[in-house]
Structures are given as structure tokens and as C-alpha cells.
Specification:
Layout (H helix, E strand, L loop, with lengths): L8 E8 L22 H6 L4 H5 L3 E10 L6 H15 L4 E7 L5 H11 L2 H4 L3 E5 L12 H13 L5 E6 L2 E4 L4 E2 L8 E2 L7 E4 L2 E4 L12 H9 L5 E6 L7 H8 L7 E8 L7 H12 L3 E6 L15 E2 L5 H13 L2
Parallel strand pairs: 1-2, 1-3, 3-4, 4-5, 11-12, 12-13, 13-14
Antiparallel strand pairs: 5-6, 6-9, 7-8, 9-10
Helix pairs in contact: 4-10, 8-9
The protein binds succinic acid.
């Protein structure tokens, strides 16, 4: 779109998803193909966007075009490089990313964990999405995109957040919790960070800050590393045994050895004694083990003498990202 020199800018990066999806029948909200429409075309379909911008120029860039169930590490790396490059420009005041809903929470957490504090503690990175394709009779993408730009323009906004169906969620808390309804995200116990109400942002909590312990060298390494440490998620359930863990330990190729396991425990992170024994074998083999819960709400309150590391309230998929990043920093 527009790119007037010297004007303040909002940048919109496209990565695909249902927001960019199309179906052959406008009444079909599930039998569509994700990631078909370019980000510039998505922006053109948002009514009233130019008046919202109040003199800001809008730049768009297609970083990827994928169904986010197929999200890849190399796309994350490109994304983190492009976000950093744009946010480093003094005239870029905020950034929006269009993304599929299925792994949006992982990308949001990844960006929160790796983007330099000097950038995201002063500017917002706003992920947005849609549950209905662009070709729908009543698509939710244009409204979500408009509200994401509203949040990106909001004075004082900063940190990585997600906007969907009028709610703003912090990257740390956001989680998809519905399979098809437009309001598909929750922040669990924490509650949303803000609401977008008829074009106005009502802030409920402080904008998020980057985690403090980010080593700049680790961030640079992540942006270019070619092999990511293998970290798998295993779950506890009735009748569970440790067979999956033992199989992972046996089939751990030299090229991609198992480095970490995240266990999605029951309740307060409890684990079947047979799975626990297998996880102990994994620890002895040098594999890092992190305990989380399969419960949608609440955090695991670590027992005093737990042999497995605590996820610090992260969901299983986010704890996996955190563990991969931690292993990469070593
Ligand atoms: C995707 O995650 O890319 C497809 C599903 C969606 O965006 O809702």
C-alpha cells in the first residue's frame, strides 16, 4: 500500500491462515483452503482503513503463505528477522501479523521470547487471524484486521499481543479454545489484556514487557540456526505407560537427537507412575524434562522436590518453544 516518505508507518506482515483462505462456496466456513489471498488484497478489503490510519502510511509484506498447522521453524526465523528489521526503523510505530489461528499462540510466544526488549518494550507486535475464510458470507477477518491496526496505532501500546473477535490477549496467555467459533481465543485465568470496543481500545492490564533474561547472542543465533533441538510433547492419560518415551529414546537419530520432553500432565501436572519412570530414564539419558498440565486453566504449582523442571505456567506447546530456545542458547 501507501509508503509516503517520512510518514509514520504501520507494517502488516502476511503469513497465511484462514484469514487468507478461500472456499468455492461462500456458505462454506470449514471446507476452504487456507493461505490463498495475499496480505495486500486482505488490507484492500477492510472498509475504512485509510481514515483509521490518521496520516500513518501502511506497508505490507508477504512473509509466508501457509496454513498455520504447517508452521515451520524457517518461517519463524524469517518472521523474527523481518519484524526486527521493520521495528528497528524509527518511523515504524507498530506492526501487525496476519496468521492462522491453529498455531498463532506458539508464534506469538516465540516472538515474545526472542524479539529484543529494546524493540518490543516500546512498540506493539499484533497478531491477528480469522476463523472464517475471506470468501465467507460473513468473514471475520476484515474486522479483526481493522482492530489489530487499531491496537497497533494505540499510543503507548507495546509487546506481542493477539487480537481476535474484539479481545486483545498477551502472547504469554493466549490460547485457542474453540474449534470453529469466531471468538476462538482465551487468556485463561489471566483474562484478556484489553477489548476493542467500537474502535476504542479499553485496556484492562499493563501492556506486556519482554522477558528480562534474553541474551542478544541467543536471539541472533536463533534467527540463523539450521537445526532446532528436538523437543517432543507427551501426555498423561488413563492407562498411560512409558512406551512413547522409551520409543523416542530408542529412535533418536544422531542428526536430530531427542533433547527435551514436555509432559502434559493431568491436573496439577500429575504423571502416571509408569510414564514417570520412563521420564526418569529420559533424564538419566540427558534429556531435559519439563512438567506442564493438560488442563486449559491454572498453572502447575510445583511440588517442593519435583525432579522435573517447572514450566512456569506455560502451556505444553509454549513450554516446548521455551525449552527449544533454552537448549539453543547452550
Ligand atoms: C490456520 O491455522 O492456518 C488455519 C486455521 C485458521 O486460521 O483458523
Amino acid at each position: 500500500m501507501n509508503s509516503e516518505k517520512n510518514a509514520k508507518k504501520i507494517v502488516v506482515l502476511g503469513t497465511g491462515g484462514t484469514i487468507a483462505g478461500t472456499a468455492s462456496n461462500a456458505a462454506d466456513n470449514i471446507g476452504y483452503t487456507a493461505a490463498q489471498v495475499g496480505v495486500a488484497q486482505l488490507l484492500d478489503a477492510v472498509p475504512g482503513l485509510s481514515s483509521l490510519l490518521q496520516g500513518h502510511a501502511l506497508l505490507s509484506e508477504q512473509v509466508a503463505q501457509v496454513d498455520s498447522k504447517d508452521m515451520r521453524f524457517d518461517i519463524w526465523q524469517t518472521l523474527v528477522r523481518r519484524v526486527s528489521a521493520h521495528l528497528s526503523q524509527p518511523d515504524v510505530t507498530g506492526l501487525v501479523i496476519t496468521h492462522g489461528t491453529d498455531t498463532l499462540e506458539e508464534t506469538a510466544y516465540f516472538l515474545h521470547a526472542v524479539l529484543p526488549a529494546r524493540l518490543i518494550n516500546s512498540k506493539p507486535v499484533v497478531l491477528t487471524c480469522a476463523m472464517r475464510p475471506a470468501s465467507s458470507l460473513s468473514p471475520d477477518g476484515p474486522q479483526n484486521l481493522k482492530e489489530a491496526v487499531t491496537v497497533a496505532l494505540r499510543a503507548g501500546a507495546h509487546g506481542v499481543v493477539a487480537v481476535c473477535a474484539g479481545s486483545v490477549h498477551a502472547a504469554l496467555d493466549v490460547q485457542k479454545n474453540h474449534t470453529y467459533q469466531p471468538a476462538a481465543f482465551t487468556s485463561g485465568d489471566a483474562g484478556p489484556l484489553a477489548y476493542v470496543e467500537e474502535g476504542a481500545v479499553r485496556l484492562l492490564r499493563n501492556w506486556p514487557l519482554a522477558p528480562e533474561l534474553k541474551a542478544q547472542e541467543a536471539i541472533e543465533k536463533i534467527a540463523f540456526v539450521s537445526t532446532w533441538p528436538r523437543v517432543e510433547v507427551v501426555m498423561n492419560y488413563a492407562g498411560c505407560d512409558g512406551a512413547v518415551v522409551d520409543a523416542l529414546l530408542r529412535c533418536s537419530p544422531d542428526a536430530s537427537p531427542l533433547r527435551g520432553l514436555v509432559v502434559a500432565g493431568t491436573g496439577n501436572g500429575t504423571i502416571h507412575k509408569d510414564l514417570e519412570a520412563a521420564l526418569r530414564r529420559a533424564l538419566q539419558a540427558g534429556v531435559r524434562v519439563v512438567r506442564t498440565t493438560r488442563c486449559a486453566n491454572g498453572r502447575v504449582l510445583p511440588a517442593a522436590k519435583s525432579e522435573f523442571a517447572s514450566s512456569d505456567g506455560l502451556s505444553p506447546v509454549k513450554a516446548r518453544v521455551a525449552l527449544m530456545l533454552d537448549l539453543m542458547g547452550r
